[in-house]
Amino acid sequence: MPPQTPAEIIHSEPVPAPAGREIAAPGRAPHAQIIGLGAYRPRRVVTNEELCTSVDSTDEWIRTRTGIAERRWAEPDETLVAMSVQAAAAALADAGIAASDVGCVVLATVTHLEQTPSAAALIAHQLGAVNAAAFDISAGCAGFCHGVALGRDLVQGGSAGHVLVIGAERISDFIDPQDRTTAFIFGDGAGAVVIGPAGRPGIGPVVWGADGSQYGVIGQTRDWKAFMEDPTGPRPFIQMSGQQVFRWASYEMVPVANRALQAAGITVDELDAFIPHQANMRIIDAMVKALKLPEGVPVARDIAAMGNTSAASVPLAMERMRRDGEVPRGGTALLVGFGAGLSYAAQVVRLPWG
Ligand SMILES: CC(C)(COP(=O)(O)OP(=O)(O)OC[C@H]1O[C@@H](n2cnc3c(N)ncnc32)[C@H](O)[C@@H]1OP(=O)(O)O)[C@@H](O)C(=O)NCCC(=O)NCCS
């Protein structure tokens, strides 16, 4: 069979059902890749100095322990949906895809304030993605990498022509501003990618999992039911056992990253970029060392300016690398997401530029 031309790299038509009781098979794409990228960074910059007016801490302590110099906290009009729509619209424009060509909108978040319906349904509506299924996924700071895995499978499996994967958080709504164990870490923002059909593999196999035995390591101070039963107490906020998360992420995510490289058939020397979840600069440094990443490979360090933006951190970091020309020609990047659950997901992707 002759090689496919770009125009042919589309979903095949559904395979009609043979006579009898068989079900027709969906059309499929040979491969999938990220074809567009967008980001939204809230306007308001919160420096460590400002933060320390409500938290008992110092700029020096925060910088030394986390590498964070400042973060963004969303203002009232910068809702979760509004930030997501901005990032997604930028990703669609970057991909050259109309909203009506999107078959599925996946929002990774832990900070949608309504139990139901999903924020993704409203995002799809506001974008004009009238032909799209839409739903939210909750996998903590690993949510975006889960979404990329889903997006790839939806495109290759034939359930959607193009998938919009958004990672967005308004995590400032869930922070106790006086809690010195969490308030300095987290920030708000949104990042998005468009995943579409491709003639060669653009998203490697995902290595993912969840360890529910560590369910309480990152979570809430109390659940909403407890709050409903006793609303006189403080409302639920985010809480975490910092040292436990630190140890787990620094040591256990390296084998996960290595497995993702192996699954993609890429060696660490062949990477063009390393884009881990932006949890703590020291965790990033520990991973770089343990992975034996060659010195010349650019490493995402968006955390210094954005803090930990949970599900938004990987696409935001990817966007900064492109904007700053840190990875001028695109190429292959290793993504590693990890967070509440405890959950994780890692994969090698081809970057959507160059
Ligand atoms: C949260 C984190 C920065 C804390 O750093 P740490 O080195 O583990 O700090 P510890 O909790 O051991 O506390 C060390 C000391 O600093 C103090 N301290 C804690 N928070 C402080 C703050 N905000 N400002 C100043 N001092 C603080 C503690 O009281 C303790 O003092 P002591 O030694 O006198 O008892 C670190 O554990 C971390 O980054 N963990 C991972 C968090 C993360 O990535 N979360 C998201 C995952 S998706």
Automatic annotation (TrEMBL):
Catalysed transformations (reactions): malonyl-[ACP] + acetyl-CoA + H(+) = 3-oxobutanoyl-[ACP] + CO2 + CoA
Name the UniProt record assigns to this protein: Beta-ketoacyl-[acyl-carrier-protein] synthase III
Bilayer-spanning residue ranges: none
Protein role: Catalyzes the condensation reaction of fatty acid synthesis by the addition to an acyl acceptor of two carbons from malonyl-ACP. Catalyzes the first condensation reaction which initiates fatty acid synthesis and may therefore play a role in governing the total rate of fatty acid production. Possesses both acetoacetyl-ACP synthase and acetyl transacylase activities. Its substrate specificity determines the biosynthesis of branched-chain and/or straight-chain of fatty acids.
Residues annotated as domain Beta-ketoacyl-[acyl-carrier-protein] synthase III N-terminal: 135-212
Pathway annotation: Lipid metabolism; fatty acid biosynthesis
Family: Belongs to the thiolase-like superfamily. FabH family.
NCBIfam families listed in its UniProt record: fabH, PRK09352.1
Domain Beta-ketoacyl-[acyl-carrier-protein] synthase III C-terminal: residue ranges: 261-350
Residues at the active site: 141, 277, 308
Biological process terms in GO annotation: fatty acid biosynthetic process; secondary metabolite biosynthetic process
Recorded GO CC terms: cytoplasm
HAMAP family for the chain: FabH
Residue segments, region ACP-binding: 278-282
The keyword Glycosyltransferase is assigned to this record: no
MF terms in GO: 3-oxoacyl-[acyl-carrier-protein] synthase activity; beta-ketoacyl-acyl-carrier-protein synthase III activity
Compartments where located: Cytoplasm
Main localization of the protein described in the UniProt heading: cytoplasm
Encoding gene (name): fabH1
Superkingdom of this protein's organism: Bacteria
Family annotation (CDD domains): KAS_III
This protein's domain notes: The last Arg residue of the ACP-binding site is essential for the weak association between ACP/AcpP and FabH.
EC number per UniProt: 2.3.1.180
Keyword field: Acyltransferase, Cytoplasm, Fatty acid biosynthesis, Fatty acid metabolism, Lipid biosynthesis, Lipid metabolism, Multifunctional enzyme, Transferase
Subunit composition and interactions: Homodimer.
